[in-house]
Amino acid sequence: MEPAEILSNPGGAIGVGWLMIVLPLLGAAVLLLGGRRTDKWGHYFGVLMALASFVVAALVFFQLLGFAPGERRRGVSLYEFIPGVADMGLLIDPLSVSFALLITGVGSLIHIYSIGYMSHDHDRRRFFAYLNLFVAAMLLLVLADNYVALFVGWEGVGLASYLLIGFWQFKPTAATAAKKAFVVNRVGDFGLLVAIFIMFTSFGSVAFGEVFAKAGAESQGTITAIGLLLLLGACGKSAQLPLQSWLLDAMEGPTPVSALIHAATMVTAGVYLVVRSGAAFFPGEGTASLVVTIVGVATLLAGAIIGTAKDDIKKALAGSTMSQIGYMMLAAGLGPVGYAFAIAHLISHGFFKANLFLGAGSVMHAMNDQVDMRKYGGLRKYLPITFITFFIGYLAIIGFPLLSGYFTKDGIIETTMEHNAILGWLAVVGAGITGFYMSRLVFMTFFGKARWDEGVKPHESPAVMTWPLILLAIGSVVLGAFLIVGNRLMIFLGPAVGRPEELPEFHAVSPVGLATLALVALGAAYAWLKYGRQEVPAVAPRGSVLTTFARRDLYGDALNEALFMRPGQWLTRLAVWFDNRGIDGLVNGLAAGIGGTSGRLRRIQTGYVRSYALSIFVGAAILAGAWFVVGTL
Amino acid sequence: MNTITAPAIEYLQLAPLLIVFGAGILGVLVEAFAPRYLRRAMHIPLTLLSLAGAFALVIVQTIKGVPTKPSAMGAVAVDGPTLFIWGTILVLAFISLLLLNDEDHFVPAASAVPGSAEEERALIEGNVHTEVYPLALFAIGGMLLFPASNDLLIMFVALEVMSLPLYLLCGLARRRRLLSQESAMKYFLLGAFSSAFFLYGTALLYGYAGSVDLAKISTALSANVGQDALLFTGAALLGVGLLFKIGAAPFQAWKPDVYQGAPTPVTALMASGTLVAAFGALLRVFWVAIGELDWDWSPIMWGVAILTMVVGAILAITQTDIKRMLAYSSIAHAGFLLVGVVAIGDAKQNATALAAILFYLAVYGIASIGAFAIVTMVRDAGGEAWHLSRWAGLGKRSPKLAGLFAFFLLAFAGIPLTSGFFGKYAVFQAAVAGGAVQLVVVGVVASAVAAFFYVRVIVLMFFNDPAPDGPTVVLPSWGTASVVGFAALATVVLGVFPQPVLDLAQSAAGSLFVR
Amino acid sequence: MELYAPILVLAVLAAGFAVFSVSVAPFTGPKRWNRAKLDAYECGIEPTPQPVGGGRFPLKYMITAMLFIVFDIEIIFLYPWAVAFDQLGVFGLIEMVLFIVTVLVAYAYVWRRRGLDWD
């Protein structure tokens, strides 16, 4: 089934859909411009704006449900943005609304959680300002009806991410991590930007509707080129191979940031981009789609392997995020049959990963900001709520039957299996590794003996932090079944991204599903053997070559350094040399020339009124004379 | 004997003018009868309310529908462009007056010899020339009438009403008295000189067409009555008078001297309001009265535009006085605007070009007032820190202020996401559509040169080390602060979201000038 | 061109008369000097003493002259109205009253600011 046509603005909540973006933007503006004056109530204001945005999103959602499925794509044009190139407008359709609900819903919960988490930070207001800014930019990204506005949002989330990773900029590691995220993302942004340029020259427009309509008539080469460039952009934002290296370092930011931006929402923007552009550029067959699936599988394995070796609880979770987004990418590369699974996994992942991160934050809160899991242990008695919610999130992510991940991940694996068996089995292996590293994480943190530093007295977090955990845990339990059973999400998204004519059936028991479950169980059991039953050493053992490989992020940074940084530095040196000799010579010469002219001309300005009058008189004479010449020609 | 019938005057259409002039006259009465200590308290509401009232009336008229005929027996044309220009001037005047309101810009006793004992005494007694308010109002009234006049004689009267108070205001600077008096004298002499050209041109055109009415001159042109010598000379001389007011080369010499010497709030008013008014009048004369003649004047305007852009951009580079630099920048911008004047064509093309010019004028006016407002805040012991070297490192001492100033400079340079970008973009686009591609190329090159000296100031402020005894930044009064705030906000908003004002300019320009 | 001939003739005659009388006077008139005759003529009163090198000229003369011109011009505006006031009717009356009031405001300003006092 092809995507439906984009209809006109029906007014109502959809007509004022821009409020979703404007409200958090207003929050950011008030908090940033208000300065210290807003310190007292700033965080409440930020939460209020996020919640208000959620309410608008919900209203828009319900209004959209009121239309027949074929009429659920609505364009809301706002104003002329860049004359002749792009108009500012929103595209309200099932896809964008799903994202809006996720962003504002999970975003609001994380805002609330942050009240507690950041309560000791004297810069809490600035933190909320950035969070609001992020929500606004992310909403612009998913609600925009054209690529240029999407790009603005894309850069906006990049900026917010940069600001938030480096929020504790007094830590050199945080500042470096922020810079790294920014630079790596530039590479991806470059791809997206060039893709937009090609679209504009080929189709004469950057609006989704027009681009998709005209893409069919374009040559395959152009389509593939645009697809690959879009994929480059997606890889940067979503930490997919080969642009994955920033995400692990990004964990330097405050934990709510890791939960919101680097787990639930921003990093999934790449998946959004691929699914949104899917109808035209990633139809499920052809080079671009194939590359998407390969990137997805490679990343899901790489992320999982990295996750097995990390002792830093947040970095382990970050590896897991990479891996899970790899699953989404894989699904998005499968074409219309996979889009819904990608988005379903994205939404349920948004919940359980936010849940896990916030749980990790709660643990760190209890452990004086200790992140090393080797210094945890036995925490389940001391942090009961955190433990239960975290455990639910854990079961969800490893795909324990009937929890969210079970439905969404299994959907992806089964669909892949029909598409390409090799990729499918690799995805199954990934699921097995997930079972291992997530179990390892849980056992090291909550089970076994206490290996705490001296003076640490764990305590359960305040209600403002636990309630979001509980809500997210509920989402982690029910969302997968809700979205997948009966193909609910696929039918809902159909008008926006297209769907196969025959809806896939859901099998509760299938050979592939059983194999996956078996592997996961095996992974968990191995983790129990190594980390549950045995004593966990307080210092990481040397480990094998493979472990070192994983601990070093699969040598991603070393690879980057060798492949990009060194040649880049050489290129820079070359450019500087050339710039000094060639370009600067030209420019400086030109500047000196103009400056010299200026210095000489300046003497005309004598300061004597008589010479000014003379210049006026002569000017008048020339003007009149010229007029005569021209007029009588 | 001829019978004389009483003329019909559309008072409502002229009401904005009448309000401003009426408030000016009331201001003179305040000066005459109110005790000294009460005067300022009476002037401020009178002035601001009259401007706001006039603005409200402009809005009312815009909503009620734009008149399609000239008013007051064809003497004044209150049409779409006029209403837009009026609105622009009134907004600019309002914020300029907020700036003017800080009394410490003006001399305590204008007639005293600079540095004399009398002046010292007046200073100690705390005298102030509250006459600046009625003077400014008269000048603003003249600015309103100038672009609206549909008749060369009315236009001349408006020109004088606008200019005479400005000559006086220029000489009232509190500090650097001699420079201020010199600037007033120069402005007066050269202004009178150019007025004479204007008047002479008017006389010759009257000799040609038998009327000073712009529409009738246009009719006479189509009738082709002969006597081209009268026409060419007249039009050229008229052009000189108008080009002088906008500061186009080679009639630009007064601008740096006057902008430098005048009290900065007055400079702000001149750089914004006078420029808008003079461009309105220039367009009306060149497009309405001698629009048929565009084949003749277009090449000349090309030359003037190129010369103006080049002179403005190049001479600005070597300036060391911040106000002189801004004056040359204003000359360069006059050149960019002239590019739009040349873009004449069919009715649709004219409307596009006119809308572009109107938008440009509005955004440039606002940004320049903002920039001059910041100039008033950076002080040395002897007043404003005029020398550019004193601005070095300002970004380190006072990042907010330097940031705002940098922002206005970027708007002047036409960097995207500032209002200046869309202004320049619109004007150049209209000129390209009008076939003046080469002119636009020159314009873009001149913009690049101009960007150089704007950026140089930014570099100076942010990347140079501050002088140990550098200037202080005064805490702005509410007036100055709100001026800077408004100008910055408008420059941002119009840079990101220009559509409403562009639409307004387009609908104002759609009706073109009435004849 | 013929239209302008009388004007040209008049101009020539006027110039001729002026040149003639100025050039003839020195030869024909009696020459009896006294102090008063050698003084500069200033509205019939004692000339203000001037320091060597020009110096500053008191402003009061200029102010008086300016005021004279302002009110003089008022009369010029009043004259045509006086000729046609019956035809202009109420409109003319109101406009003229407004005009005079405006000039009166200027007068009031000058008066209150002691522009009319000599010292």
TrEMBL record, chain A:
GO process annotations (BP): ATP synthesis coupled electron transport; electron transport coupled proton transport
Transmembrane feature ranges: 12-33, 45-68, 88-115, 127-144, 150-170, 190-213, 257-275, 287-306, 327-348, 383-402, 422-443, 464-486, 506-529, 612-630
Protein's UniProt keywords contain Membrane: yes
A Gene Ontology term for the protein's cellular component: endomembrane system
GO molecular function: NADH dehydrogenase (ubiquinone) activity; NADH dehydrogenase activity
Listed InterPro entries: NADHpl_OxRdtase_5_subgr, ND/Mrp_TM, NU5C-like, Proton_antipo_N
Keywords in alphabetical order: Membrane, Transmembrane, Transmembrane helix
RNA-binding as UniProt keyword: no
Pfam families: Proton_antipo_M, Proton_antipo_N
Membrane topology: Multi-pass membrane protein
Gene3D superfamilies: 1.20.5.2700
Main location, first listed in the record: membrane
Domain NADH:quinone oxidoreductase/Mrp antiporter transmembrane: 144-434
Domain NADH-Ubiquinone oxidoreductase (complex I) chain 5 N-terminal, chain residue ranges per copy: 86-128
Top-rank taxon: Bacteria
Stored PANTHER family: NADH-UBIQUINONE OXIDOREDUCTASE CHAIN 5
Protein name: NADH-quinone oxidoreductase subunit L
Organism of provenance: Acrocarpospora corrugata
Gene: nuoL
From TrEMBL, chain B:
Protein keywords: Cell membrane, Membrane, NAD, Quinone, Translocase, Transmembrane, Transmembrane helix, Transport
An example Gene Ontology biological process: ATP synthesis coupled electron transport
Residue ranges annotated for the NADH:quinone oxidoreductase/Mrp antiporter transmembrane domain, each copy included: 149-448
Topological type in the membrane: Multi-pass membrane protein
Source domain of life: Bacteria
Cellular-component GO terms for this entry: endomembrane system; plasma membrane
Record field: catalytic activity: a quinone + NADH + 5 H(+)(in) = a quinol + NAD(+) + 4 H(+)(out)
Family: Belongs to the complex I subunit 2 family.
Stated name of the protein: NADH-quinone oxidoreductase subunit N
Organism: Acrocarpospora corrugata
Gene: nuoN_1
Automatic annotation (TrEMBL), chain C:
Cellular component aspect of the GO annotation: NADH dehydrogenase complex; plasma membrane
Quaternary structure, from the entry: NDH-1 is composed of 14 different subunits. Subunits NuoA, H, J, K, L, M, N constitute the membrane sector of the complex.
PANTHER family found in the cross-reference section: NADH-QUINONE OXIDOREDUCTASE SUBUNIT A (PTHR11058:SF22), NADH-UBIQUINONE OXIDOREDUCTASE CHAIN 3 (PTHR11058)
Transmembrane stretches, start-end: 6-27, 61-82, 88-110
Designated name of the protein: NADH-quinone oxidoreductase subunit A
Class in the EC hierarchy, top level: translocase
Function recorded in the entry: NDH-1 shuttles electrons from NADH, via FMN and iron-sulfur (Fe-S) centers, to quinones in the respiratory chain. The immediate electron acceptor for the enzyme in this species is believed to be a menaquinone. Couples the redox reaction to proton translocation (for every two electrons transferred, four hydrogen ions are translocated across the cytoplasmic membrane), and thus conserves the redox energy in a proton gradient.
Membrane topology category: Multi-pass membrane protein
Family: Belongs to the complex I subunit 3 family.
Presence of keyword Transmembrane: yes
GO MF: NADH dehydrogenase (quinone) (non-electrogenic) activity; NADH dehydrogenase (ubiquinone) activity; quinone binding
Location relative to the cell: Cell membrane; Membrane
InterPro entries: NAD(P)H_OxRDtase_bac/plastid, NADH_UbQ/plastoQ_OxRdtase_su3, NDAH_ubi_oxred_su3_sf
E.C. code: 7.1.1.-
Organism encoding this protein: Acrocarpospora corrugata
UniProt keywords, alphabetically: Cell membrane, Membrane, NAD, Quinone, Translocase, Transmembrane, Transmembrane helix, Transport
Catalytic activity entry: a quinone + NADH + 5 H(+)(in) = a quinol + NAD(+) + 4 H(+)(out)
